[in-house]
């Protein structure tokens, strides 16, 4: 069972993680809002790229940014869920078995929903 001090420390850590993730999402959204046609970024005068490699690189970068955005959104959902578990008193207990999640696991992964063994078996 976690002490009030430990719960408060995890809450502070999760709040900091939440703020960081929200900043990352806001940054991505601002980049998307301010983005232009890839050819404009490359200084092209027409809508046809001079070299297919330039277009491929641009597409790769967009996909990479989108993947990072999706990962950050998932991370934020996990953080919100962990904060909800702190509020309802279920934080630190496995959602699968109800057994306590070891403190070491929570320190390494404050959003953990179950023990390592349970997570590996699913």
UniProtKB/TrEMBL annotation:
Segments forming domain Zinc finger DksA/TraR C4-type: 95-120
Keywords: Metal-binding, Zinc, Zinc-finger
Source species, domain of life: Bacteria
Region (Disordered): 18-70
Chain intervals with Basic and acidic residues compositional bias: 34-44, 60-70
Renumbered zinc finger spans (dksA C4-type): 94-118
Protein name listed in UniProt: TraR/DksA C4-type zinc finger protein
Source species: Halobacillus naozhouensis
